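ERR on first pass: missing label on line 2. Operator R.T. fixed the label and resubmitted. Corrected input:
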Amino acid sequence: MASSHHQPTDGRPAPPRQPDAQPSLGEILRRNGVSRRGFLKFCAATASMMALPPSMAPAIAKTLETARRPSVIWLSFQECTGCTESLTRSFAPTVENLILDTISLDYHHTLQAAAGEAAEQAREAAMQANMGEYLVVVDGSLPGPGANPGYSTIAGVSNYDMLMDTVKGAAAVVAVGTCAAFGGLPKADPNPSGAVAVQDLVKDKPVINVSGCPPVPMVITGVLAQFLTFGKLPELDQYNRPRAFFGQAIHDRCYRRPFYDKGLFAESFDDEGAKKGWCLYRLGCKGPMTYNACATMKWNGGTSWPVEAGAPCLGCSEPDFWDAGGFYKALSVPPGKPGDTLLAAGAAGAAVGLAAGVMGRRKVKAAAKAHRTVTADELEQKL
Amino acid sequence: MTSLGDIPIKVEGGTSATDFGNALPVLSEVRHALARLIETGEPTQIDLGAMPFGPGDEERLMALLGNGEVNATIDALGPTRIRETAFGGVWVVEYLNADEQRVALHLEIDEVPQMLRAQRDDFTDALAAIDARLAPVSSNEPADGQRTD
Ligand code: SF4
Ligand code: SF4
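pass 2 clean. output:
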């Protein structure tokens, strides 16, 4: 380390270098000219982003002051890049970029300048340097160990091998998007590439599922911020999704809910009910079985969300949502008589969710057995 | 058109979302927070981004809250706009990024919103900065040769 022994021109000896001492998040922000008020604002916005009450901002500030910069390796497998788009086109650049700037994104082959061997070397270098501590983010599903690996490879390495090799030294794995979390579109009936989800393969590391097609950008950054802030994994639901964002059904936070409770439904996309903003249940809304943050965090920087724009929820954050019946077909449980209580409606919602899950799983199994190809026309007819 | 927010949303009359909206429930939450501030001095912050607002709910709530005497803008990590409502002790705090897009919208029920207060850690830095200003003056004095001790 000869270079660290050079003398500054003013004759004073250089301060001893500590190769391991990375700057804390507080230091990085201050170096970027962020004042203490700015930092407080950052923490208030981060609290919102993590779906924590604003009173948590001082506690966040305290931990963030000393938080270290974690290394992140982002792997993209069978995906459409929508999840990365969702994250990078988010509408609150200052705060979310700060989060991105303060994590060290060492490998993301869509975003990084390096390609080919240089890129793969960057991944391996990051793994070596941060053994046991780095975070692996995955978007996209991947052909399982029994499937033909040729369906998806990077630099000649199968997705399966790359995932298993990369997670070996990881602290945790974050599966971003419904494809990585549950298999998503590639796994939909008849699953030609034998696609599986990350949690089907990674058994010895914690897997956090941030589902959605794509996930709400604030939810992606919120989960990363949470890891950055508290250095530990968030509380998860039965599908390994962080409860802070996936703890409530769309239906329970939907502003159209009072119409549902009164039995006021739009029956078509342009009838009187649709124009008056009534409930979209009969137009196929999957809100009652879908757990996601859309109804409060919304999309495009809080501008609106699908139900507010008059489109029924497709249930995109739930396992096998592609195979849970037609998007515009009403859920099979009757919406109940006008004036039904919240409790009854919630119970019905849970039952429907369960049914769809079981149905989805059964369909996938049957499809795997038959393994036949389907034309677009046939699909149309099925819907 | 400058932003997505400028696209007008027209909700037809009759049984509209405003009849069911969430503005009044939030106002009642504010009422309880204010009572708590009076009794125990405990401030409250309400994250309006976590409310299931439908079209028109935010406007309705803002109309209910009205305007007070204080308007302030803080320039740190993009602007933050603070406005007192018609109800003393109830503040609207809107956090914007450098492109003037909203990153968070809070209500604060407090004497002074957190962001408006000078930060304690800044006092020590400020003291050092003032000392630095004064230091060259005092150390230059003998060098001027004006003084004979
Ligand atoms: S069914 Fe859909 S539109 Fe209707 S209240 Fe539930 S989530 Fe909202
Ligand atoms: S409204 Fe439903 S389908 Fe649409 S993004 Fe949200 S969870 Fe997904």
